[in-house]
Amino acid sequence: MWRLQVCDWRPHTGTRASPRTTGWLSTSPRASTGSLVAVKYSEQIVFVQHVDICLKAGDTMDDAEMHRRIVGYGVRVLGVSFRTEAPDSPVLRSLDNDGFFARKLRDTARLVLHVHVRRSQGGIWAPDEHGNIDAFLSGVGARVHETCMIAHELGHAVLEIERRRTGTADEFGDHLEGIGKRLGEEKPITVAEANAFYGEEKAAWEHGARLLDERGFTRWFRFGQVCEKSLATYERAIQSCCVGWRAPPLNDFLDPLVARDPPSVA
To answer: Would you say 97 and 118 are in contact if contact means Cβ atoms under 8 Å apart?
Structure first.
């Protein structure tokens, strides 16, 4: 496949701005021995770059590009590092979790912004030692599912970054970690603690939806499925430890998004 990129030309300096991806082509627009073709049109340069992306069944090039955009945003803008985890990795803590946001390292307690993602092969970082994300972008099983999960984990990163700016991250993070530990041990928690824990997960999904929307995401029906399944896992765990607690409805959040991408009728 060929990635179509456009960037602004600066005639007074003879330089160009950073290119932005605008679309995809199935073949090169002209014969070229290299992987990059550049054509200048007035005040813009159009680049067509060959990109080796292997699509899974049911994926589209838009799905692959959206996956790249959300990972790239996490790395470049939020300063997040991604790492793949093997299916049996203890980092993900539960077989129900395909993603996990870590705000600090377990062994040293050093503050980080790490997103761990379940894959068939673990140990692949983005960015890698050369600052690239391509290795992480390959080997994806369910691309749209992972894109949604990554957006959710980046939602956690956004919340963490905001709290670090206000000086409340450590206190709040330790509070949630304590609640999560008691949930894992199936010990009772209060309604206030249940609301705080579930509210954090829901807020991360809301931030994740915003990040995807800003990047041009369209698979909202699938997003709704992934979000509901994930939050249902927390809902069951909390209800078993907090008698009388009920999760708030998701209609106001999810219905407007899903309405933009109704399920196809067979």
So the answer is: yes
